[in-house]
Fold this sequence. Notes:
Radius of gyration: 21 Å
CATH superfamily: Metal-dependent hydrolases
Distance between the termini: 47 Å
Strand order of the largest sheet: 6-5-4-7-8-9-10
Order of helices and strands: HHEHEHEHEEEHEHHEHEHHEHHH
Number of helices: 14
CATH architecture: Alpha-Beta Barrel
Structural class: alpha/beta
Largest sheet: 7 strands, mixed
Shape: globular
CATH topology: TIM Barrel
CATH class: Alpha Beta
Amino acid sequence: MNRSSFNLRSFNLRSFSRRSFLNWANLAGLAAALPFVPAFGDITDEAKSQASTAGPTTTKLASPESILLKDYRPQSIYKIPVTEIPKAKFPVIDMHTHPYAKTEQEIEAWVRNMDEVGIEKAMILTMTTGAAFDEIHRKYAKYPERFETWCGFDFAGYDKPGFGAAAVKELERCKQAGARGVGEIHDKGKGLRSGKSNALGMHPDDPRMDSLLEKCGELGMPISLHVADPIWMYQKMDNHNDGLMNAYQWRLDNQPDVVGLSGMVDIFERTLARHRNTTFIACHFMNLDYDLARLGEVMERNPNLYADISARYAETAPIPRFAAQFYAKHADRLVYGTDMGVDKSMYRVTFRILESLDEHFYEVEQFSYHWSLNGLGLSDGILKPVYHDNAAGLLAARRL
């Protein structure tokens, strides 16, 4: 795609899946700053049909010897129960969303979707500061019972002596302007990023971050921190890579000077120990969805840590029994999140995975092709804290 010829006003959101949007954002140089933006309302049946049957671009039937993994669209043949869950079993607080809705009408449509599926409130992780944050907050502040806006960090001058004072001042200003937390802050191994503000080579445990992270604790502002990326992106892109269908597009194995996943987890844990009075929420299971036992150990060592479950449903649903055991053991430290848009169908996919005992199903419209998925069948005693109570307690404990 020619970047210069792209017209955002003519961009048809309904025709894009999560993968195709991210692919466009990467081409346009915006992947670092923009989250996925879905259509408002559910995808039409016709669009779903087109998406599920999408394969190689050629009109000829592909030979089995030439079908690419990225074009694989399996359909389960098993005649087994299919559970539809139109509304979550308990009220839900979504701890990981972004400012997808840009207009008052779109925000109203999102609220209607939330009402229909049982989302009580959503955290809007803006990743912004300054005028950009103020504008987003102004729009969502009309619904104070349904949305909270969280700001980002301003890393300007991070590589100059004296960094910190100005960033802290802007954080305090954002708090006064209405920010209730901070996020989503990224470090995928090359340094911190908050939307379009970058700090190449500076990680969360860097002493230059001390004043900012300590101030968050003083102000009662939790930090939503995304470290690393799924393990498959770091592994060799060969026929042994279990997640090759997604890893190749977002590969990190060929990136110079990138801290690996395990190293980023170590950095995060040093940060937690360094700032005990600050609450952190690790996005996406801290990308330890492949090693939940290690995540459990990190949480046990660090009482100031929660983990959100956003955008890793397709990575944990293939291991339903072990994942369910993990949820049971750490039900007091996990919080619900989506990070996948505003569609009712998207929310319902997450409910099906968490609540049902369905087996061997695919959700290619939502996740593209991953592995076959399974319901975790979580009990009420696990669902209620994960859906709502943990987040409610975390939010209520903040200083106003």
